TrEMBL record:
The lineage of its organism: Bacteria, Pseudomonadati, Acidobacteriota, Terriglobia, Terriglobales. It holds the Pfam family tRNA-synt_1c. Keywords: Aminoacyl-tRNA synthetase, ATP-binding, Ligase, Metal-binding, Nucleotide-binding, Protein biosynthesis, Zinc. This is Aminoacyl-tRNA synthetase class I family protein. One of its GO terms (cellular component) is cytosol. It comes from the Bacteria. Belongs to the class-I aminoacyl-tRNA synthetase family.
């Protein structure tokens, strides 16, 4: 199978040095294998995404010397390349998970709801996906063996409830990372039941990213190290949906002077700010 990689910026702010390096790594790994690179606009969250940032990301990526073969600006066989236009695909996946009894509606906190469309980056407001979900709304174990029956298909659509994937407690999820080597995260210990759909009818990051990487036939996912735990969550979704798992390559994070992970609030390290100051692409990329 030929290599297919992707870069997937979220248009919730300007790209910073950390994004630049991760995306450049994705570009280089793809180029070294003569592969096809996809640009996907992860504009899932209508509240936080701005078209201005989508446009800026394309400009900044070009300035860095990154080129792609498929994307919202150039089209391609897997169009559309913006998540806001791919809802039907996520809905079909929700339906399958629901019919299989692998997800359940949850009426807990609003805080989780607000986070779920965003990739859960370590070190941002409490770290990862927030506190581990204690399982308050989990259905009794017996329900899982009678998929769909228990509620007589009460839900025809996900709207109106938060939906969580029930993780297999105690099960280790092993995978090999192309940079960090063997990983082993334990469901129910390293992460809990995670959101796949938000009450305000927005698909959650975990579900959307898995559906897209599968539909776009991505063979290797290159992303920041702060998404390692999410990779384990996503492996559970790959299994649940019967998708073959891609390879994984997590990039070390760029830290600021205080040793914190860069976030979009670090304007000083935004690619465009540096560019305006006369910094070169090679300097941004640390080469
Ligand atoms: N769109 C996500 C972000 O900007 C990255 C998604 C991923 O690599 O899975 O954080």
């Amino acid at each position: 199978m030929s290599y297919r990689g992707r870069i997937a910026p979220s248009p919730t702010g300007y790209l910073h040095v950390g994004h630049a390096r991760t995306f450049y790594t994705a570009f280089e790994r793809c180029r070294a294998r003569g592969g096809t690179l996809v640009l996907r606009d992860e504009d899932l969250d209508p509240e936080r995404s701005r078209e201005e940032y989508s446009r800026a990301a394309i400009q900044d990526l070009h300035w860095l010397g990154i080129r792609w073969d498929e994307g919202p600006d150039v089209g391609g066989p897997h169009a559309p390349y913006a998540q806001s236009e791919r809802r039907e695909l996520y809905l079909a996946a929700w339906e399958r998970l629901y019919a299989a009894g692998l997800i359940y509606p949850c009426t807990c906190s609003r805080r989780d709801l607000l986070r779920a469309a965003q990739a859960p980056h370590e070190g941002e407001g409490g770290g990862d996906e927030g506190p581990m979900y204690p399982g308050t709304c989990r259905p009794p174990r017996t329900l899982r063996s009678r998929p769909g029956m228990e509620e007589e298909r009460r839900y025809r659509s996900p709207a109106g409830a938060n939906w969580r994937f029930q993780v297999p407690d105690g099960e280790a999820i092993p995978f090999t990372d192309g940079y960090f080597g063997p990983q082993r995260l334990v469901a129910g210990q390293d992460f809990g039941d995670f959101l796949v759909w938000r009450r305000d009818d927005v698909p959650a990051y975990q579900l959307a990213v898995v559906v897209d990487d599968h539909e776009m036939e991505i063979t290797e996912v290159v992303r920041g190290r702060d998404l390692l735990v999410s990779t384990a969550r996503q492996i559970l979704l790959y299994r649940a949906l019967g998708y073959p798992e891609p390879e994984w390559y997590h990039c070390p994070l760029v830290l600021d002077r205080e040793g914190r992970r860069l976030a979009k609030r670090h304007d000083a390290l935004a690619v465009r700010t540096l560019r305006q100051q006369g910094v070169t692409p090679a300097e941004v990329l640390g080469r």
